Amino acid sequence: MDIDKITQTGINKAIDYAPKVALALLTLIVGFWVIKYLVNYAAKALQKSGTDLTLANFLSSLLNILLKVMLILSVASMFGVNTTSFIAIFSALMVGIGMALNGTLGHAASGVMLMIFRPFKVDDLVQIGGNATIGTVDSINAFNTTLKTLDNKRIIIGNSNVTGNDITNISGQGEVGVELTFGIGYDDNIDKARKIILEVGESCPHILSTPPQGVVVANLGDSSVDLATRPFCKSEHYWDVMFYMQENVKEAFDANGVGIPYPTMDLNVSKVG
Question: Of the candidates 128, 148, 169, which is a domain's last residue?
Answer without folding.
Answer: 169
